[in-house]
Amino acid sequence: MDEKKNGGKFLKGFLAGIAGTLVVCIVAVSVLSFNGYSLTQQTVTGDRNNTNGTLKTGLTADMLKKMTYINSIVDKYYLFDKSEEDVANGIYAGMMAGLGDPYSVYYTEDQYNSLMESSSGVFCGIGVVVQANVTTGIISVVRAMPGTPGEEAGFISGDIIYAVDGTEVTGMDLSNVVALIKGEEGTEVTVTIYRDNEKMDFTLKRAKIEVPTVEYKMMDNNIGYIQVTEFDDITVEQYKTALEDLTNQGMEGLIVDLRDNPGGLLSSVCSMLDEMLPEGLIVYTEDKDGNREEEKSDAEHQFTKPLAVLINGNSASASEIYAGAIKDYGTGTLIGTQSFGKGIVQRIIELGDGSAIKLTISNYFTPKGNNIHKIGITPDIVVEANADTPEDEQLDKAVEVITEKLGK
Fold first, then answer.
1. Which listed residue, of 106, 169, 289, 331, carries a Cα 20 to 30 Å from 202's Cα?
2. Which is higher by pLDDT, 114 or 233?
3. 328 counts as catalytic
C-alpha cells in the first residue's frame, strides 16, 4: 500500500546487506517493503524562507556560491560537451554519498523505475545474482539462475563484473549496476568480467525472467526442505505453495534454508512469518525520535511441527527478521553460522519528478527487543561450512536435529 499526501510519497523498506557486501539479483533488487507513510511537502522540498543565508535543507549560501563558481569554471575550460542533466544527477548522488552511508543513495527516474519493477520478482535481464563489496566496490557474481541467459553464457560464481556496455562499474551503487544490465526483452547487453585475471566479454540477449525465489523438496523421514533465496512480492505465494504441497505429502518436520539470502520485502517476510508464528509481535522499528512501528502475526496460522532454520554470514535483513523471530519465540532451531547483522531500515522517498532517494531512517528490533545491527544472530547450533568437501554439513545437522525431535 502506498499513499500520496502533499506531493510526497514514502515507501518503507529494508535493504539487503551481506557480510560486507550487498547482494541483489540482476533485475531483481531486494530492497523495498511497501507501507504507506507521509511527511509534509516542506520536509521533501525544504523550507526556502531564507532569512539567514541558509536553506533549512542544510545547503548554505557559501555552498551554493561555490557550486556556481565551479560550474562557471567548467563552462569556460571543460574540453568536452557536458550534459546538464548528468551534472545535476551527479550533484544529487553526491549529496547522498556525502552521508557516508552505503545504504543511502539517489536514483534517477530510470533507476527508480527499474528498482520498483524488480521488487515484483519479474524482470527483463540476464538472470545473474551479483554482490557488491561495500569496502572495495568490486561487483562479483554469486550465481547464475538456471535456464537464464547468464547461465547459458557461462557466468560462474566469483566472476568480477568490470563493465557493462563499456561503462566501468566498480564502486557504483549496486542498484545502478543492475539498472545498466536491465533493459527491454530481446535487446543486447555486453558485460565485461575478470576471471582468474583474464578479461572476458559476454554479449547476451535480455530475457523475461520470473525469479524462482523458493525451491522445495521432501527429504527422507518426511522432512520437508524449503530454500528461500530472496523475499520478493512473488515469494509469499511460492512459500505458501511449498508449505501446502509438503504438508499434503505428509511432512512431519521442516527445514527452512536462508543461507546466502540477502533479504528483501518486509511485507513478504512478515506474511511468511504469519504462517509460522503464534499471535504476537514479529518485528518493530524505531526512528531517531523514538517513534515505533510494529508488525504482528495473527492467531489464524501457526507451524507446530519440528522446525530448523539454516543461516550464515550472507543471511541479512529480512532473513534475519525471519530467523530472529523464530529464535525469540523458540519455535525452531537456528543452525549454521552468525548472520550478517543488517538491523537498519531504509525508506524510499519519491522526489516528485520521477527520481527518488533511499535513506536510512530507523533501527529494527526482534520480538524480544534485540537490535542485531553489525552483530548478527547467533545460531542455536554453530556449524561451519566446509568448502573442501561436497557434503553439506549444516544441512546434515538440521536433518539430524529434526530426526531426533521426531524420535526416529
1. 106
2. 233
3. yes
Is the pLDDT assigned to residue 55 strictly greater than 90? no
Region of poorest pLDDT, from 363-372, 382-391, 392-401:
382-391
Of 321, 325, 238, nearest in space to 276 by CA: 325
How many whole angstroms separate alpha carbon 212 and alpha carbon 228? 9
Say which residues have a Cβ less than 8 Å from residue 98's Cβ, sequence separation at least 6.
none
User: Based on the number of CB atoms within 10 Å of its own CB, is 142 exposed (0-12), middle (13-18) or buried (19 or more)?
Assistant: buried
Contact between 221 and 403 (Cβ < 8 Å):
yes
Catalytic, out of 114, 317, 319, 355: 317
Q: What DSSP character marks residue 121?
A: T
The radius of gyration of the chain's CA atoms, rounded to the nearest angstrom, is 23
Cell of 148: 537464464
Which of 327, 342, 358, 397 is the catalytic position? 342
274 is catalytic: no
In three-state secondary structure terms, 198 is: strand
Predicted TM-score (pTM) of this structure: 0.71
% helix, strand, coil for the chain, step of 5: 25, 30, 40
Smallest CA-to-CA distance from 258 within 396, 394, 119 is with 394
Catalytic residue, candidates 328, 355, 358, 397: 328
pLDDT digits (tens, 9 = 90+) for 102-137: 889 999 998 888 778 766 667 889 999 888 887 899
317 is catalytic: yes
What single DSSP character describes residue 159? P
- Confidence tier at 350 by pLDDT (50, 70, 90): very high
pLDDT digits (tens, 9 = 90+) for 289-327: 999 999 999 999 999 999 999 999 999 999 999 999 999
